[in-house]
Amino acid sequence: MYDDLAALLKKNNASLTQPRKKIFDLLLNQEPQTVQVLVRRAAGEVDRATVYRAIELFERLGIAHRLNIGWKYKIELSDIFAKHHHHFYCTNCGNTFNLSQNTMLETMIDSVSSKTGFSPRGHQLEVYGLCANCQSS
User: Fold this and answer.
1) Which value, to the nearest 10 degrees, does the dihedral of the CA atoms of residues 108, 87, 18, 51 take?
2) Chain centroid offset of residue 64 CA
3) Residue 119, Cβ neighbours under 10 Å: how many?
4) pTM for this structure?
5) Which helix (H) or strand (E) holds 11?
6) Between 134 and which of 2, 54, 65, 130 could a Cys-Cys bridge form, CB atoms 3.0 to 4.6 Å apart?
7) In CATH, what number is assigned to the domain containing residue 72?
8) What is the distance between the alpha carbons of residues 59 and 76, in angstroms, rounded to a whole number?
9) Tens digits of per-residue pLDDT, 53-109?
10) Spatial separation of the C-alpha atoms in residues 2 and 8, rounded to whole Å
């Protein structure tokens, strides 16, 4: 995994520094996170400004992407480093949950794209509502 990351960075005249590796590790196999959460989790190892610069670089190079949720956003690794998926977002508590892979949904997107002559380069899907905990409260 680090070899792929290092190669992608090198291809774009950047290197895999310890702070970038730490930010990548904080994103790896995790639910989407706000930058504030990443800053807090990196505290003592990576300073705030470096976290923001690393995220900006990761987004620009397609290593990570942001999920726009209302006025806020969360960061997660892109499909290059994580299996393609969609999200449920709880509008009450703010938790984000991965939606299990659904081949029927992906087939529908491909079919509609084909019928309309659209050539997609990627997509994101977020479903908003209440999680089980918030429904029972």
Assistant:
1) 120
2) 5
3) 7
4) 0.78
5) helix 2-11
6) 130
7) 1.10.10.10
8) 10
9) 999 999 999 999 998 877 788 999 998 888 877 888 888 988 888 887 788 888 888
10) 10
